[in-house]
Design goal:
The protein is of the alpha/beta class and 238 residues long. It folds into two domains: 167 residues, Nucleotidyltransferase, domain 5, CATH 3.30.420; 37 residues, no CATH class. Helix content is 42%, strand content 17%. It is built from ten helices and seven strands. It has a five-stranded mixed β-sheet, with helices on both faces. The chain has a two-stranded antiparallel sheet with strand order 6-7. The chain starts with a strand and ends with a helix.
Length: 238
């Protein structure tokens, strides 16, 4: 499964007042793994950046003067997105700006009508009702290091959101096993492993604490139905 984690920075918060995109950052996930492929572009918005927005991302009018217009990066962005599922934090905001930019180029249809979209803010509110769910808060909650994030920027935020999303939806991806196929059905190949080559690691006290905290998060999200935690409790009761 191919997914694209996407974030934008803009000249201001209100697309209806003519605010524009100034930065786009995308990170590719393949089968719940960061592939290393990214799309990133600064965009000349052909208007001034609001002072309040500048204080958030620090991207100045002078910096953007020699950057390409959206029409110059639109085809490359669409090609990178392909038919992937989009993962966006507060999706209506970014989609509103992207749709407005493409509308200026001609009738292309809304992005969410062509691609599936997962809003991590909406997901976080479901998992953690009544709590703050900004990207910084979620980084702290799910153990993602955002210490280098001083100002907002689309590429860094997309990278952080990718890690938050993976942790928020179960961490390590499911393992996929493939067996050799023959015309008369599947075959099984036995792998021989030298036990002496197996590296073993013992969990320390901090590892155990973090593991237990993670299980408690799953228990809360699953409304008391964390099977792993139930099995641990049953084993301790024997």
């Amino acid at each position: 499964m191919r997914q694209i984690v996407l974030d934008t920075e803009t000249t201001g918060i209100d697309v209806l007042n003519g605010h524009r995109i100034i930065e786009i950052g995308c990170v590719e996930l393949n089968d719940r793994r960061v592939s290393g492929r990214e799309f990133h572009a600064f965009v000349n918005p052909e208007r001034e950046v609001d002072p309040d927005a500048y204080r958030v991302h620090g991207i100045s009018d002078e910096f953007l003067l020699d950057k390409p217009r959206f029409r110059d990066v639109a085809d490359g962005l669409l090609a990178f997105l392909g038919d992937a599922e989009l993962i966006i934090h507060n999706a209506p905001f970014d989609l509103g700006f992207l749709n407005a930019e493409w509308a200026r180029l001609g009738p292309t249809g809304r992005l969410e009508e062509r691609l599936s979209v997962l809003d991590t803010l909406k997901l976080a509110k479901t998992l953690h009702p009544g709590l703050r769910n900004s990207l910084d808060v979620l980084c702290k909650r799910y153990g993602v290091d955002n210490s280098k994030r001083e100002l907002h920027d689309a590429r860094t935020d997309a990278r952080l959101l990718a890690q938050v999303y993976l942790n928020m939806t179960g961490g390590q991806s499911a393992l996929h096993f493939q067996s050799a196929q023959r015309s008369d059905g599947p075959s099984v190949r036995q792998l021989r492993v030298d036990a002496a080559q197996i590296v073993r690691f013992a969990a320390n006290a901090e590892d155990i604490r973090l593991h237990e905290a993670r299980l408690q998060q799953i228990e809360k999200s699953a409304k008391g139905n964390c099977l792993w935690l139930h099995q641990i409790r049953a084993a301790q009761a024997e």
